[in-house]
Fold:
Amino acid sequence: MAYLIGVVLFALAIFISVALHEAGHMATAKAFGMKVTRYFVGFGPTLFSFRRGETEYGLKAIPAGAFVKIVGMTPQDDDVAPEDEPKAMWRYPVWKRTIVMSAGSIMHFILGFVVLWVTLFLVGVPNPDLNDQAKVDALPATVSIENCVQLNADRTNCLPSDPQSPARQAGLQNGDKITAVNGTQVATYIGLVNTIRAAKPGPATLTFEHAGVTKTANIDLVAAPRHPADNPSGPPTTVAALGVSQALPSNIPTTVTYGPIESIGQSGRFTGQLFEGIGSSLKTIPSKIPNLWDSLSGKPRDPNGPISVVGATRLGGESVQHGAWTLFLSFLISLNFFIGVFNLLPLLPLDGGHIAISWFERVRSWFYAKIGRRDPGRVDYLKLMPITYAVILVFGGFTLLTVAADIINPVTLFGN
Structure:
């Protein structure tokens, strides 16, 4: 039930954000005097509608988006009545059209920032001190016992084919502190990782403290691929694995909150980090497509690869199911920022494509005036339709691929 509630809440949040996206276009267009004839939330049959001024507002049966109709978005629009010509969008200055077309993305950015502020102020975020690797590495080798050893360096969930954790088999418990491996003393968790990986897979002896009592255990280390401890993005190599993770002392909180004013500054800092991550993600999408395709046949899914709205909604439900509201809100924040950035890419039919064409027209007109030639006028959108269809085809195919992967072989957070 908790999972279903999480799915519904996340889907509702996406629905609201899309409605706000279109409301951003509408509000700015109206503010500049452009004529807006329709604003509807949803698609399909109309459930109800009403008119205020020159705009019809309504709700449709399928809650899968929203749309706004601004008169004369392009010079080729053939449904502009003669009396509406002065209010046609394409007749307005380029800076006004830019604001109107970017307002949808701006709404996503505002929504993401507000949700981020609420998260920092009221819910809590991962303790930044835990991102300070020097501080984390200096902590004692206190461990949490995993259920298995993942035989994939990029997966965090257990599969039936993964061997059971050697530490669990040996009877170690959460909170035990490992002090030696094969007689080699270890004082920190990173020291434990390096010592285990330097050992050979197979029999080994652990010395550990449980409830203040020193004990020993004979174990069999498992061979598993792992990224280098000092370079998590480096290529994995096969090393010995124990099946434990780092347990933090109780006096180090895993999450922190900030005051209402401080949260504003922290929101700005986190926003910068998120935008940097989005830029990196967009660059790596082409290289992630083969893994998406392979995952349809049951091969391991890259947890850091692209996911669709379906996948994000499933993760939202999984977060609520496990009480991880910070993760739920983080997915919502990241999704809004990503949609906002993606929508500004200079490609038709995205808003960024319309903005790019508007500025191309403006620069071209300026250049022709400088060289004394006649203004060539507006770009003919009809001639750009093949490119637009190609973009739709590529993005549509990619969307179908990610949705299929999220249904057949979804990314999970807390294991199967």
